[in-house]
């Protein structure tokens, strides 16, 4: 298991380096979030030992069980859809909530973080693919939400997150990521230098995300193999 994982990590770093060379990016500007949904805690330990200090989870209950066992051994990112009734627990567990997909959710995160005397880093999830099955604010509503979230005192708004479209057509994928990057640039003009994270790209499309300006990629299968 460890040998396979070590091989996968090396392969991923090689693919990142290749994409950065091809698209004139700097590898130091790309952060990997290791997505450990449905993976056992031993895999999180291996990821951290391999230098992957950002861990992504999609479900509050599953993350709670893992973090309770492991402790805060990494920066934990909430990357799945977050219901408002799970926010109180989420702000206690996660260092970053990437999947803020409505102002209502943002305001509840702000309220719960304030009650816990915390400040939580957040990204706005944008539905750049326009697919109905995906969560995220619509691109036309993104910048208004940036302006509103900037005012919330218990949230540090640091960027955007998007999921690429379900297609094999590279230009369609790149167009969605390009729109995410354009919104990211406008958002940085609104928020300032702290708005520095563009989380887009997963195992099947991260080189294309790097091509279009991603600073953070979320990798599960390419690191760990198929989910259990």
What do these coordinates show?
- The chain is an alpha/beta fold.
- It has one domain (2-223): TIM Barrel (Alpha-Beta Barrel), CATH 3.20.20.
- Helices cover 46% and strands 18% of the residues.
- The protein has an eight-stranded parallel sheet with strand order 7-6-5-4-3-2-1-8.
- The longest helix is centred in the C-terminal third of the chain and has 22 residues, at 170-191.
- It starts with a helix and ends with a helix.
The CATH first-level class comes to Alpha Beta
Which structural category do the helix and sheet elements fall into? alpha/beta
**Beta-strand content bin:** 15-25%
What's the helical proportion of residues? 40-55%
Tell me, rounded to a whole number, the average pLDDT: 96
Q: Mind summarizing the main beta sheet?
A: 8 strands, parallel
CATH superfamily: Alanine racemase
**Form type:** globular
Radius of gyration: 17 Å
Our count of helices gives 9
Low-confidence stretches: none
Name given to the CATH architecture: Alpha-Beta Barrel
Strands of the largest sheet, in order across it?
7-6-5-4-3-2-1-8
In brief:
By secondary structure, this protein is an alpha/beta fold.
